[in-house]
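For the sake of transparency, this paper describes our internal protein records without simplification. The tokens are whole numbers drawn from a learned vocabulary of local backbone shapes. One such record is reproduced below, unchanged from the form in which we store it.

. . .
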Amino acid sequence: MLLYADYIALLARNAADFKNELRLLEKYCSDNGLVVNVRKSKVMACHTSCRIRKYCGNELEVLKSYVYLGVPFSSNLRGDLAASEFLKKERRAACTVLSILANLKASSWLVKKKDYTT
């Protein structure tokens, strides 16, 4: 189980483990007066058809990919979706740095840093 603020990701190796995790989540929420928003809850099965589609009697949407805390996951688990997304972000960051350097008329950050420290 991954927890961050009000985000929860249940991870399981098989349907039986997933069902058990859902039961534990349901009990924890019941014991602590919490409610899971099933409209925002999703299921992403990896390498298998998803047989578990309900939580507390409510239908859950089944997805082939999902973004959790900014990291895209896909049901094939190859990591290509996350790698592609992070490459796009890296390219945008590199272009931004090059643009800043061009505007500063500096060949590198070290040159600009030297200008400020001397």
